[in-house]
Design brief:
This protein is of the alpha+beta class and 913 residues long. The chain has 32 helices and 32 strands. Helix 2 packs antiparallel against helix 5, helix 6 packs parallel to helix 9 and helix 21 crosses helix 22. The longest helix has 27 residues. 39% of the residues are buried.
Length: 913
């Protein structure tokens, strides 16, 4: 067994199959799929890409304290319902350690390999933990069933895929848990249904033991039946070698006296407890069990029939839910044993059929070929709410919901035509009190001794609770939990349906900036109240149901049922609206008419008033697209335009789309330019009052191969928005420091100034990076000056101030750039370790002709002297301005009147002259 490091860096894959897998994982992460579909998609691509025999995805369940299977794709797997405990096998080891694990030559060297996994003939296993926000939430596995080895490359691909899919599964964990529980309920329901008609107990006990191992993650499960001659083991499942044996006298079995009260018994740390009579429990010693849960098989009003023994090779404390599931399985076994005892006692009596029916947990009845009830059991009467005599006076179709009569009768007709038994189908029955009972209907043809069809045997199982749970899960998967509005997934489906039926559709995306970060400021309860208040107002504005004060919010939130207009919540600060365009009215005007009133009045929550506003992007079909995907993309582009223009509403246009494509192209090319040396630095000198060179400001320049020179005002914002800024800043800093180091050979003491963005100083590793760059270029810290704008200083001021103080402690200088154009707060001038004030060029260039700007320059110079700060005047373009600044005792000057920005070679020539 080997462990791999967790610092594998995912690379962009070259092969089409890997790209397809990651693309599908990203599609899954868009929340348009449910967890099962996400997991199935993930393991299918993982198995195909690695060429492995099988793949699986397990997810941690806090309540059960086990790993639940979300998807198992392995033709050799005996079950798709296996669970793992932490440290159990390779999968549990990966979860417990948080590290990838490879086990070639499985199960050699593997701690507590599950019996069912060994039985499947697994030869190699690789497991990778799924980590979200630093916490292990699940495990991806690969398996080989032949002589093949799994490699570090397989693990690297597993990590890549896991990083894509884990956040989506984490956000949908409640739905995933509910789906697993529904799957559990179906398996138990199937077992109970089979037990109602079976007289052979042994295979059903085998199934209970197998279910125990799979659902509870045990290595051993068995049922011990105390008899007069000894304890007979039945239904054993696990790795026990001598299954037919294990007979001991009842008086020697130490568990029996402790189970007579009907309560389960938990034994932990068996290998470390010398007081436990292990010789009297040979299965514990033979199976090397450390934890045992013994569940008595005892009817409510009867004697002990046996014991369901569940064993783990790990020391653990089963959760209450796990013990509860053990009780449920034990109850099923008790029911089987009770039924077996009853059938054995009444086998030769005429009442056998009647008692079997009445003790069955599902509704059973015989129906004449003419459709009337012939015989019903108690469960059937209880499910339908009628007394047996009342049902016998009815036809079977009378208890079916009218719209399901044809579906139910089709099952009967197929039996008459083909014989045999029907597949279970879901139908709605009508209870005697009028409410609907969702039921699972199975029909079997009963023939007489001459093989002539005589009756239909009908099994009816009440699945109303499961159906309601499924409906609730569907609602959770398609609606926003805070507002009850449709979510992105449902809105997308409704919009696709709408545009396929009617071409005239308007889609508006609303972004409410004030909602971003609202939860951090108010707490989630108050923030949710604000969001709900806004959604109610928006629902009133679209007036889907003739909304008014008399229409409750819940009705408006279900407006999508109307199919005409719909309101949805896409994200914390984003809503979507589907409307019908008005003939002759521009779309932007119509949207403002319908939605603007929602923002006219402030929202008052917990005594605080909140005024909200929105940017709105509008798209109309068929002009802007004929599918939901095209319309939403167009509306999103229009929303970006409204946000950029600080406008209330913008409608999509081709120009907007072209601008977005151009921006996206520039971002890609900028990323490549930063990585491939496509940028350059220009240096603009800064001199003192005597004309001596003091420092130079490093300015990034980009000449695009197709578009030519792209100004910093264009590409710096793109770098910040796209996440390229850290790489760009690192390149500028390293290049400028290297140049400054070269200057020291012929001009010692000339410093270099580098501009930093807000995002640079919000990075907790910023100081370490700057210090490392100084060491790399062997440059004293005092020769580096960091320039920051006032706006940057006010962005996350606590983090920025902390990093600036660390830089000042290193000896790096701080210049406040463009002073006077931002917040101009004197408070932060006193609190921050600033050394220089740079007066913005907008004041300097007109100071000779504008008395107001001249007064501002004079005031800033006086303020700087009072605070002991060095001053630099930007935008010096002529000798008269230089003379005036010298007269005002300005320390340093910079501008075209001194020198334009120039390359390093040009700067060297300029210095020499």
């Amino acid at each position: 067994m080997s462990e791999l490091g967790s610092n594998v860096v995912p690379l962009l894959p070259d092969d089409p199959l890997t790209r397809e897998a990651l693309s599908d994982a990203l599609l899954a992460a868009s929340s348009l799929l449910d967890p099962s579909a996400v997991a199935q998609l993930t393991v299918r691509h993982l198995r195909d890409q690695c060429g492995a025999d099988g793949a699986a995805l397990y997810w941690w369940d806090d309540a059960e304290q086990v790993l639940l299977p979300l998807a198992v794709l392995d033709p050799h797997a005996r079950s798709l319902h296996q669970v793992f405990h932490p440290r159990q096998g390779v999968t549990g080891a990966a979860f417990a350690t948080g590290m990838p694990v490879i086990a070639n030559g499985y199960p050699s060297g593997v701690e507590s390999p599950p019996a069912w996994k060994v039985a499947e003939g697994v030869c190699a296993v690789a497991a990778v933990p799924l980590v979200v926000h630093g916490q292990v939430c699940g495990v991806l596995t690969l398996t080989e069933h032949h002589e093949a080895e799994l490699t570090d490359g397989d693990v690297e691909l597993m990590q890549r895929v896991g990083e894509q899919v884990a956040p989506t599964l984490h956000s949908m964990r409640a739905l995933a848990h509910a789906q697993f529980r529904l799957s559990e309920a179906r398996e138990l329901s199937s077992l109970i249904r089979d037990s109602a008609t079976s007289t052979d107990v042994t295979p059903l006990l085998d199934r209970i033991c197998e279910l125990s191992c799979r659902m509870l993650g045990t290595e051993f499960a068995g049922v011990v039946l105390p008899t007069a001659g000894g304890d007979v083991w039945a239904g054993i499942y696990g790795s026990i070698s001598d299954r037919p044996g294990w007979r001991r006298e009842a008086r020697d079995w130490p568990l029996l006296p402790s189970l007579m009260d009907g309560e389960p018994l938990l034994l932990s740390d068996l290998g470390d407890n010398p007081d436990l009579p292990l010789d009297a429990m040979p299965v514990v010693r033979a199976e090397k069990l450390r934890t045992v849960l013994a569940v008595p098989l005892m009817p409510a009003d009867g004697d002990l029939l046996g014991v369901l023994v569940l064993g783990w090779r790990l020391s653990l404390t089963p959760s209450l839910q796990l013990v509860g599931l053990g009780r449920t399985l034990g109850a099923a076994a008790t029911s089987l044993l009770t039924q077996a005892r009853t059938i054995a006692a009444l086998r030769d009596r005429e009442t056998l059929w009647r008692l079997t029916l009445d003790n069955a947990p599902v509704g059973i009845c015989l129906v004449h070929l003419n459709g009337t009830f012939r015989l019903v059991n108690d469960a059937m009467s209880r499910i339908l709410g009628y007394a047996a005599d009342d049902l016998l006076a009815r036809e079977f179709t009378s208890v079916l919901e009218p719209t399901d009569v044809r579906l139910g009768m089709a099952a009967f007709d197929r039996l008459l035509a083909d014989g045999g038994s029907s597949q279970p189908i879901q139908v709605r029955c009508v209870h005697a009190d009028g409410h609907v009972v969702w039921s699972l209907l199975s029909v079997q043809l009963v023939r007489d001794v001459d093989d002539v069809a005589e009756y239909f045997c009908v099994l009816l199982e009440d699945i109303t609770s499961q159906h309601e749970q499924t409906a609730q899960l569907t609602h959770l998967a398609t609606h926003d939990q805070v507002t009850g509005l449709a979510n992105r997934r449902l809105f997308y489906d409704l919009l696709n349906d709408r545009v396929s039926r009617s071409g005239d559709t308007l889609v508006a995306l609303l972004e409410v900036p004030q909602l971003h970060g609202l939860e951090d400021r108010l707490g989630h309860l108050s923030a949710d109240e604000v969001v709900r208040a806004l959604s109610d107002r928006l629902a009133e504005c679209i007036d889907v149901l003739g909304a008014s004060d008399s229409v409750d919010a819940a009705a408006r939130r279900n407006a999508e049922a109307d199919g005409q207009e719909c309101l949805a919540r896409f994200a914390s600060d984003e809503f979507a609206v589907m409307l019908t365009p008005r003939a002759g009215q521009p779309a932007e005007e119509m949207v403002l008419d319908r939605l603007a009133s929602a923002f006219n009045e402030p929202f008052t929550v917990a005594g605080r008033s909140h005024r909200l506003s929105a940017h709105i992007g509008v798209a109309v079909s068929p002009a802007h697209g004929s599918t939901a995907q095209d319309l939403l993309r167009a509306a999103d582009i229009a929303l970006a335009g409204a946000r950029h223009d600080s406008a209330a509403v913008r409608q999509y246009s081709t120009a907007m789309g072209d601008a977005l494509l151009h921006s996206q192209r520039l971002i890609l090319d900028l990323r490549a330019a930063v990585a491939g040396g496509g940028l350059s630095l220009a240096y603009q000198p800064i001199i003192d009052g005597d004309g001596r060179l003091v420092s130079a400001e490093a300015l990034a320049r980009w000449t695009h191969p197709e578009f030519g020179a792209v100004g910093p005002d264009a590409f710096i914002p793109l770098a910040e928005e796209s996440g390229v800024m850290p790489a760009l800043t690192a390149w500028v800093l390293d290049t400028a420091l290297a140049s400054c180091a070269r200057w020291q050979r012929d001009k010692p003491g000339v410093a270099v100034a580098v501009n930093l963005a807000a995002t640079d100083l919000q990075d907790p590793t910023a100081v370490q990076g700057i210090a490392e760059a100084l060491r790399k270029n062997q440059l004293p810290p005092e020769l580096l000056e960091i320039e920051l704008t006032e706006t940057t200083l006010m962005t996350d001021p606590l983090t920025v101030a902390t990093n600036l103080n660390h830089l000042a402690a290193l000896g790096v200088k701080l210049a406040i750039d463009d002073f006077g154009t931002g917040y101009s707060s004197f408070t932060y001038l006193q609190r921050l370790p600033a050394t220089t004030l740079k007066i913005d060029r907008s004041f300097v260039t007109t100071m000779l002709t504008d008395t107001g700007n001249a007064a501002i320059v004079t005031m800033v110079l006086q303020l700087a002297r009072m605070l002991g700060l060095t001053t630099v005047a930007e935008g010096v373009e002529d000798a008269e301005t230089r003379d005036q600044l010298n007269a005002l005792h300005c320390d340093r000057q910079q501008g075209y009147g001194i020198a334009r920005p120039m390359s390093e070679d040009q700067f060297a020539t300029w210095r020499a002259t």
